[in-house]
Amino acid sequence: MLRALPVIVQVALLVYCLIDCLQSDPDRVRNLSKGWWVVLIVVLPIAGGVAWLVAGRPLTPRTHVPWPSTATAGFPEHERPRRYGDDAAAEERRRAEERRSDELHEQMLRDWEAQLRAREQGAAGASETAGGEQGSPGPHGAARDDGAGPGRA
């Protein structure tokens, strides 16, 4: 295991420096062009990697993010900047909206159940009054519909 350690360190340094070089902005790379740094890192893995870290890498990290259109780009969710006092008011508005939404859904469910009950009562009442008037029983013992039932023209 101890014999493999230098090889692992060399490969890790090569991969890290190569990825860092490829992702850096070409106009911020120091001393050589980006292409020459890539060649140097690949041809001389240890010396090229150390040279990249010391003399080629940009001094300041990138400030732009891949999604600059959002107002909070670059901030983790728990560190997102907020105006003072917005949390309590926003939370109350969210709760009120959830209550309104729940009440609306409950009302819609009650209306739907009432419609189903009315349909069932209407269907039960129609089958009781019709009795055997709609036709002779079909092959399974159920009354056959002649096509003139409710909802048909």
Please describe what this structure looks like.
There is one protein chain. It is elongated, with a radius of gyration of 37 Å. Helix 1 (5-23) packs antiparallel against helix 2. The protein has helices at 5-23, 34-43, 45-56, 86-130. The longest helix has 45 residues, at 86-130. The protein is built from 4 helices and no strands. The mean pLDDT is 78. The chain has 153 residues and is mostly helical.
- Oligomeric grouping of the chains: single chain
Give the distance, in angstroms, between the N- and C-terminal Cα atoms: 86 Å
Specify the helix fraction band.
Answer: 55-70%
> What order do the helices and strands follow?
HHHH
The overall average pLDDT, rounded, is 78
**Largest sheet at a glance?**
none
Structural class: mainly alpha
What is the number of beta strands?
0
Anisotropy-based shape: elongated
What's the short story on this structure?
The chain starts with a helix and ends in a 23-residue tail after the last helix.
In terms of topology, how is this protein built?
Elements: H1 5-23, H2 34-43, H3 45-56, H4 86-130
Helix pairs in contact: 1-2, 1-3, 2-3
Q: What brief labels describe this structure?
A:
single chain, mainly alpha, 4 helices
